[in-house]
Each structure stands twice: as C-alpha cells, then as structure tokens.
Amino acid sequence: MNPIITRILTPQDGSTSVIAQIRLFILMFLPLSMPLLAYAFTGIGETLTRSIFGSGAVIAFGKQVFLFLAIRSFSQDMLTDKLL
Fold first, then answer.
1. Which ranges of the chain does DSSP label H, i.e. alpha helix?
2. What predicted TM-score, i.e. pTM, was given to this entire model?
3. Are 35 and 75 in contact (CB under 8 A)?
4. Contacts of 50 (CB under 8 A, 6+ apart)
5. What residues does each domain of the chain span?
6. Which of 5, 11, 52, 58 could make an S-S bridge to 15, C-beta 3.0–4.6 Å?
7. Rounded distance between C-alpha atoms, residue 23 and residue 42, angstroms
8. Is the pLDDT of residue 72 over 80?
9. pLDDT at residue 20, rounded to an integer
10. CA pair distance 34, 31, nearest whole angstrom
C-alpha cells in the first residue's frame, strides 16, 4: 500500500500551494501510519473477540506487537536526532 499512497500524496513538481504542503506533511508520517492502522484494526478485532468469547489475550499480545512496530518505525524513519 505504501507505493500507492505515496504516489497519490506526492504533489506535482514545483507545486507550492497550501494543498501541496498539506500533502507533503501527511506524506512525512506515512511510515508511521501503517503500523498504527494495524494497531487500530487489531484493537477492533480484540473488542469483538472479547465481546463474543470473553477472552482475547492472544489478540491483545498482537496489538502490543503492532505498537512496538509503530515505535520502531518512528524511531528509524522519523527521528533525526542521534541522541534519541
């Protein structure tokens, strides 16, 4: 999905409009958005599983894995300060 979203959000060359700046700002957070979307969908699945079966410990663990992936993606792709 990343190449498709990148192609959609990348503005035309030389475009300096407000919309182009907003699109570039959103594009900056693209590496972080995929693990967070997975975390959100896993949370929805956990809620449904807990309401139907009364337990969702395995799905809760998967949700924590996606949160770890989001933090890892943030630290590798978005943080520029080497101290952090």
1. 2-9, 18-28, 30-53, 57-77
2. 0.61
3. no
4. 56
5. 2-77
6. 11
7. 27
8. yes
9. 86
10. 6
Structure tokens at 36: 């967070």
Q: Token pair 């959000």 is at which residue?
A: 9
Closest CA to 35 of 2, 57, 81: 2
Query: Could you report the per-residue pLDDT of 43-58, keeping only the tens digit for each?
Result: 898 888 888 888 888 8
Smallest Cα–Cα separation from 37: which of 4, 78, 69, 59?
A: 69
- What pLDDT, on a 0 to 100 scale, did the predictor assign at position 84? 58
Q: Which single residue is written with the structure tokens 């699109």?
A: 23
DSSP line for 60-76: HHHHHHHHHHHHHHHHH
Q: Both tokens of residue 20?
A: 């182009």
